[in-house]
Every structure is written in structure tokens, then in C-alpha cells.
Amino acid sequence: MPADLPPKFLHQLKVAWLQLGGKWSWLAMVPGERDLSTAGIARALCSVASQLSIDPIGFVEAKDVDLDTASRLIGQLGSANASVNARPIFSRPLLSADNSEPQVTQWIVALESPLANPLALPVALAADGVVLCVRRGRSTIAEVRQTIEAVGADRVVCCLLMD
């Protein structure tokens, strides 16, 4: 686990991971404001998740998303709107050919704000759910509301309130 994170924050990430439990293949971490990066928090969540999950967890940082990047991500990770049996998650077996390294079964994708880059929105909508990242005292209620309206309130599965 990341040693540079305060114990209180590590505890919050553990609680968030337990809250995210369930059947999903990938989640999009979306900032509640235009110029917040979710990469650091997503990496920290992956690190915590790797300690708590029996399944391998992967991290993708999707910044400067353009049409090609969005299409590729959705194509590789699948769409929440596709049927579970038809989803093209990964054709590789759970273990590599030499049985030494497990393949990733769940992904956390750090996205930029769909308010700052509208091409991030299709990626967020294709995910199994959205984790909304909000900074206490810095994210404005107006931007958080706009973000929730953009991704859909029903798509937000968790909100991380960061100091």
C-alpha cells in the first residue's frame, strides 16, 4: 500500500473498496471539477484493492482522451450496456501461459473531467459505474452537479471526498 498516504485516507480507500464490491469489470474515476486529476487517487485505490481483493486489479490513466483513445478503451474494456456474456473483456486466460502472473480481471480507469473534455464522457458511460472524486473545500457544488448530470446520477456508485 502507498506508504505516503495518511492512515485516515487509507482507511477511507479500504471502506470505498468494500463499498464497490460486487460484479463489475471496470469503473471510471471521474473528478467533480474541471482541473482535478484522478490518477493519484485511482492508483492508491488500486494499491489498496490489490491487498483486499482475490482478483487482480489493473489501472489505466486515460488523459487527453480523443475519439481514438475513447473508442479503443471502450473496445478493450467492454461496455456496461452490452450483455455480460457478450462482453469482450479479455480473451486471455486468468493465468498467463506459464502460470506465473495472473491476468487483470477488474480495472480502474482514471478519467479527466467530462466538463473539461467531453470525449471522456462516452468512456465514463461505457464503464460499469462511476466513482466521483470531490475535493473538500475546493470542488464547487455547481461543477459537482454538472458532472453528476453529465454522467447520470444512477451511474455514480461511490463518491470519494478528499481533503
Question: Would you kindly provide a written description of the structure presented here, covering whatever features stand out?
Answer:
- With 163 residues, this protein is of the alpha/beta class.
- The protein has one domain (7-162): Rossmann fold (3-Layer(aba) Sandwich), CATH 3.40.50.
- The chain is built from five helices and five strands; from the N terminus they run H-E-H-E-H-E-H-E-H-E.
- The protein has helices at 7-19, 39-52, 67-77, 121-126, 141-151; strands at residues 26-31, 57-62, 106-111, 130-135, 156-162.
- Strands 2-3-1-4-5 form a five-stranded parallel β-sheet, with helices on both faces.
- Helix 1 (7-19) packs across helix 2 (39-52).
- It is globular.
Topology diagram in text:
Elements: H1 7-19, E1 26-31, H2 39-52, E2 57-62, H3 67-77, E3 106-111, H4 121-126, E4 130-135, H5 141-151, E5 156-162
Parallel strand pairs: 1-3, 1-4, 2-3, 4-5
Count of DSSP-assigned helices:
5
Report how far the terminal alpha carbons are from each other.
Answer: 19 Å
Radius of gyration: 16 Å
Fraction of residues in β-strands? 15-25%
Oligomeric description of these chains: single chain
**CATH class category name:** Alpha Beta
Give, in order, the helices and strands.
HEHEHEHEHE
Per CATH, the architecture is 3-Layer(aba) Sandwich
Q: Which range best describes the helical content: under 10%, 10-25%, 25-40%, 40-55%, 55-70% or over 70%?
A: 25-40%
Total DSSP E strands: 5
Give the strand order, joined by hyphens, for the main sheet. Answer: 2-3-1-4-5
**CATH topology description:** Rossmann fold
The dominant shape is globular
Derived from helix and strand composition plus strand pairing, the structural class reads: alpha/beta
**Total separate domains:** 1
Mean pLDDT metric: 83
Could you list the spans in which at least 5 consecutive residues all have pLDDT below 50?
83-96
Instruction: Please describe the biggest sheet, giving its number of strands, its sense, and whether it closes into a barrel.
Output: 5 strands, parallel
